UniProtKB/TrEMBL annotation:
Residues 11-371 form the tRNA-guanine(15) transglycosylase-like domain. Its cofactor is Zn(2+). Substrate binds at D90, S91, G92, G93, F94, D144, Q193, G220. Pfam families: TGT. Residues 251-257, 275-279 are annotated as: RNA binding. This is Queuine tRNA-ribosyltransferase. GO terms for cellular component: cytosol. The active site is at D90, D270.
Length: 372
């Protein structure tokens, strides 16, 4: 990986990340392709219509189905999915924690039951790296001990202890495998934990950032805490993260969340919100959210957003999308998803331009003024 910090506008950053498969301009939003597919889209949509340079796939889901060994035989993620750009794969720890009927973290890893067939599995720091070697992602995330909030001080302290121990085991194993010729074009990120407690976040960040990772993520946020608590936690944590490596905020979030955290120095984001909201009838625009289900749009011949350059807005009316949604027509899911992801990716491009021009504060003010 090559990382270049090109410009700052106060704490907001414009960077370039070069992997073996693509050049990623930050700030960047990564569309979520959980099972190797961005829901409702094919890879031509992702590549040609959206211009995405990186998408996220899920280690837990790909491990259970079709199996990471199958993906490896089929040309790893890039060959299997035909997406030639970069992939980031998360560790699967969050899904093991949240989807399993029986999930139990211990000193050595996480035991869980498959949400598909109830079979028992055990993720260790080394095992999730082996899985991600088979997947062939450009950026892999280590196994961390995630804690649901609110949690006791004792449980958060244990989470940090385990996460640091697993991080040390992970980076030693990953670098050793690279010396053997395995994963030489892959990169590895650690995940900072600690809830919304500043002392815990400081401890986790300083311990992990002393290790030889290619980038660092902030995890364990956007899990029910107040937005301002999330923003304050990010603002506190980034000061302990290296300036010369990527900073990734996992699982966040709304357009407002992205703008607020770009301002605080975050480079990379992912979230299911644009795709999930699209399927549920909510479309994102510069002037706020639009509920296409509403009867007011039944005879509205205007596009979702008259200034949007996506396929959906250039070709189709609100009335048509309203009809497709009410008819539960499959075409609706594709058109709505294209629009929402275009909005998110374009918002990142505009934020980057503002940073390069050192006018991010003005850009943020304009962003909120359009929302009234």
């Amino acid at each position: 990986m090559e990382f270049t910090l090109e410009a700052t506008s106060k704490n907001a950053r414009a960077c370039t990340i070069k992997t073996a498969h693509s050049t990623i301009k930050t700030p960047v939003f990564m569309p979520v392709g959980t099972v190797g597919s961005v829901k409702a889209l094919d890879m031509e949509d992702v590549l040609e219509l959206l211009g995405a340079e990186i998408i996220l796939a899920n280690t837990y889901h790909m491990y259970l189905r079709p199996g990471d060994e199958t993906v490896a035989k089929m040309g790893k993620l890039h060959g299997f999915t035909t997406f030639p750009k970069s992939f980031l794969t998360d560790s699967g720890g969050f899904q093991a924690f949240s989807l399993s009927d029986i999930s139990k973290a211990s000193q050595n890893g996480i035991e869980f039951r498959s949400h598909i067939d109830g079979s028992k599995h055990f993720f260790t720091p080394k095992k999730v790296i082996d899985i991600q070697h088979n997947l062939g992602s450009d950026i892999m995330m280590i196994l961390d001990d995630l804690v649901a909030l609110p949690a006791t001080q004792e449980r958060i302290a244990l989470s940090i202890e385990r996460t640091t121990a697993w991080a040390k085991e992970s980076i030693e194993y990953f670098r050793a495998k690279q010396k053997e010729g395995v994963g030489v074009e892959q990169n590895i990120f650690a995940i900072i934990q600690g809830g919304t407690d500043r002392a815990f976040r400081t401890k986790s960040a300083t311990e992990l950032c002393d290790l030889d990772f290619d980038g660092f993520a902030i995890g364990g946020l956007s899990v029910g805490e107040a937005n301002q608590d999330m923003y304050d936690t990010v603002e506190h944590t980034v000061q302990y993260m290296p300036k010369d490596k990527p900073r990734y905020l996992m699982g966040v979030g709304t357009p407002e969340d992205l703008i607020e955290n770009i301002e605080r120095g975050i480079d990379m984001f992912d979230c299911v919100m644009p795709t999930r909201n699209a399927r549920n009838g909510t479309l994102f625009t510069p002037f706020g959210r639009l509920n296409i289900k509403g009867a007011t749009y039944k005879e509205d011949n205007t596009p979702v957003d008259s200034e949007c350059e996506c396929l959906t807005c250039k070709r189709y009316s609100r009335a048509y999308l309203n009809h497709l949604f009410r008819a539960r027509e499959i075409t609706y899911f594709r058109l709505a998803t294209i629009h929402n992801l275009h909005y998110y990716l374009n918002l990142m491009r505009e934020a980057r331009e503002a940073i390069l021009a050192d006018r991010f504060a003005e850009f943020k003010a304009e962003f909120y003024s359009k929302r009234g």
